[in-house]
Amino acid sequence: MMDKSFRKIVDGKSYIESLRNRDLNVYLFGKKINEPVDHDMIRPSINAIAKTYDLAVTDPELASVISPFTGERVSRFLHICTSSKDLVLQNKMQRKLGQLKGTCFQMCVGIDAFNSLYSVTFEMDEKNGTDYHNKLIKFLTSMHKYNFVLGGAMTDVKGDRSLGPSQQVDPDMFVHVTKRTSKGVYISGAKAHQTGCINSHWLIVMPTMRLSEEDKQYAIVGAIPVSSKGIIYIYGRQSCDTRSMEEGSIDVGNKEFGGQEAMVIFENVFIENKNIFMDGEYDFAAMLVERFTTYHRRSYVCKSGVGDVLIGAAASIAEMNGVDNVSHIKDKLIQMSHLNETIYATGIASSYQGFKTKSGCFQCDDMLSNVCKHHVTKLPFEVSQIAQDLAGGFVSTLPSEKDLNHPKIGKLLHKYLTGSSKFSSEERIRILRLIENMTMGRNAVSYLTESIHGAGSPQTQRIQIGRMMQLEYKKRLAKILAGIDSENDKNEIVDELGDYFERVFNVK
Ligand code: SF4
Fold first, then answer.
1. Which of 39, 81, 104, 281 is catalytic?
2. Which of 114, 161, 389, 413 is deepest in the core (most CB within 10 A)?
3. Which of 7, 1, 3 is nearest to 145 (CA)?
4. Neighbours of 152 (CB within 10 A)
């Protein structure tokens, strides 16, 4: 992957070229795909990443940074955050990208993996005298040199959920080390629904949960080229996905952009020693997972950018239906905006309330990132419900593009599908197809289902919020005001802030 002939990726075009001729083992509809780049169903997900590289050209301040390792401009998706401003800019870029693509742009897992590993390897080395942090910096430097895409591989298939990794009947239910040599380790197992994995250049494999001493062989973090021997990718289907393989540009709803998830199977895949960043340190697995999910749950402000597109589509269809001045329609658009900004507000607040870790890397606020992600598990559904309400029944009963183009019935359809005379029937149909695409079609996978399960299903955020809500402290505040005797001195209680409130009231 990093041979001398390889040039740094500088824009969307050179990114797309960098994915060619890799001979990946990608399976879709039971067949191996020769060149994923040219596959009509896969290409929209590649276009989504290419657009991110293009944004770095047109808006370098937002979508790129000067690398501290190479001194050259690289994608912001490869940047280690060293201030809360860096965290905030990441969120702003994510919102912009959501607006431009109307779907998942797939690169956030990599940046969140790099940032969480940056601080965790530092603290592991400090405790154990290992050398993971320097190895990570060297790897990061080579990624900056080529401006590559890093895919994060975290979610194991998990088998029987009541059992831990080492208790499973089949040890491959969680990715683990199968063999060791003087040059590195071999791993086997499978990671489920991996976002953008085929469109990446490198994968970073990480444990998916807290581990115990018996799970030592599962405490492995390492980077591997996407084209490594022994990796099989099985493409995940999305509703209405085959529409992108049909002729025409209307029925697909969003012709250019789509998301990507695949199952990644590892059959004795080799990881070189220099690219191993955890091996056996089971007691740091929970720290890594918690820091990663804190970053990633706040990355879900991406959905507010996608929400902007859906609000725009809902407002447009109201206009095209001739009802844009009706008061309850306006009120529904206000409700959509309120829900959408609630997601953004909690995500960006988590970034503003970020704090410095021992490594110098900035970690965003965990309470607020969990609140952000928990909103995301619900609010896009409410936004979608209103969008469908405003769209009317045609959102699910429109005839196909082929019927619209039919010499006999086409004219009749255009006549009867016209709304306000200010717009053509085709414009109205295109907006309806976009709403269908985002709320029940292909891109509903990223806007709705992924919103529930990505970065942890809703209960995982509730558990974290429960851990951090400082109920005893809040009870004591209430008791003081209610005049109930307390064992502690009242001033002492009010000063006893704890983790979250220390950040809330930090005035430095
Ligand atoms: Fe990024 Fe959002 Fe896609 Fe996750 S769902 S990878 S946060 S765009």
1. 104
2. 114
3. 7
4. 27
Q: Which amino acid is it at 253?
A: G
User: Could you give the C-alpha distances from 427 to 59, 251, 330, 443, 500, in angstroms and in order?
Assistant: 30, 12, 21, 20, 49
Of 240, 267, 338, nearest to 44 (Cα)? 240
* Whether the predicted pLDDT of 50 surpasses 60: yes
Cβ atoms of 299 and 105 within 8 Å: the answer is no
Look at residues 53, 11, 91, 7 and name the one whose alpha carbon lies nearest to residue 369.
91
Give the pLDDT band of residue 498 (cuts 50, 70, 90): confident
Find out whether 257 and 438 touch, Cβ atoms under 8 Å.
Answer: no
**Per residue in 427-481, pLDDT tens?**
999 999 999 999 999 999 999 999 999 999 999 999 999 999 999 999 989 999 9
If you measure from the C-alpha of residue 116 to the centroid of ligand 1, how many angstroms do you get, rounded to a whole number?
16
Within a 10 A sphere around the Cβ of 501, how many other Cβ atoms? 14
Nearest to 352 by CA among 339, 368, 340, 337: 368
> Does the Cβ of 111 fall within 6 Å of ligand 1?
no
| Catalytic one of 296, 364, 372, 374 | 296
pLDDT of 497 above 90: no
- Nearest alpha-carbon partner for 124 in 284, 363, 295: 284
User: Residue 98: phi, psi to the nearest 5?
Assistant: -60, -40
- Taking CA atoms only, the protein residue closest to ligand 1 atom 8 is 104
pLDDT at 3 over 60: no
Q: Give, for ligand 1, the residue of 260, 294, 300, 350 to mutate: max count of ligand atoms closer than 8 Å to Cβ.
A: 300
Percent of the chain with pLDDT over 90: 94
Does the beta carbon of 258 sit less than 6 angstroms from any atom of ligand 1? Answer: no
Q: Give 32's contacts (C-beta < 8 A, 6+ positions apart).
A: 25, 26
Are the C-beta atoms of residues 156 and 191 closer than 8 Å to each other? yes
Active site residue 450: yes
Residue 328 annotated to the active site = no
Pairing verdict, β 202-205 and 150-153: parallel
- CA 317/CA 442 separation, integer angstroms: 20
Question: Is 372 noted as a catalytic residue in this protein?
Answer: no
How big is the CA angle at 173 (ends 167 and 179), to the nearest 5 degrees?
90
Asked whether 450 lines ligand 1 (CB < 6 A), one says: yes
Q: Is 218 in the pocket of ligand 1 (CB under 6 A)?
A: no
- 261 catalytic, yes or no? yes
Q: Which atom of ligand 1 is closest in space to residue 105's alpha carbon? A: 8
Helix axes 327-352, 379-391, angle to 10 degrees: 160
The residue whose two tokens read 């895409």 is 149
Protein residue closest via CA to atom 3 of ligand 1: 104
Q: Could you give phi then psi for residue 415, rounded to 5 degrees?
A: -60, -50
